[in-house]
Specification:
Elements (H helix, E strand, L loop, with lengths): L2 E5 L6 E5 L9 E2 L6 E4 L40
Antiparallel strand pairs: 1-2, 1-4, 3-4
The structure holds zinc ion.
The site of zinc ion has 8 residues, from loops.
């Protein structure tokens, strides 16, 4: 008969319970507080909360009319 681990959601104790395979998927009662306990997950997978808050770097002061290809402030010839 396999042994299963349970964790009580109320008193957070971990206990083991012998259950037949036919009842392996069932919940059991906490021996302390008699509340319903689900099976303890042996491998705790911590889901990394990746906060994808991309910082948008808006270029400040982009109001110039110079084209950047010439040094003169008045670049009417370089379309
Ligand atoms: Zn309990």
């Amino acid at each position: 008969m396999p042994i299963y681990e349970y964790i009580c959601p109320r008193c957070h104790i971990r206990f083991e319970q012998l259950l037949p395979l036919s009842r392996s998927g069932e919940d059991t009662d906490c021996p302390a507080c008699k509340s319903r306990c689900g099976r303890a997950i042996s491998k705790f997978v911590s889901r990394a909360s990746s906060d994808m808050s991309m910082l948008d770097h808006v270029p400040s002061g982009g109001g110039g009319s110079s084209c950047g290809g010439c040094t003169s402030s008045n670049c009417s010839t370089c379309g």
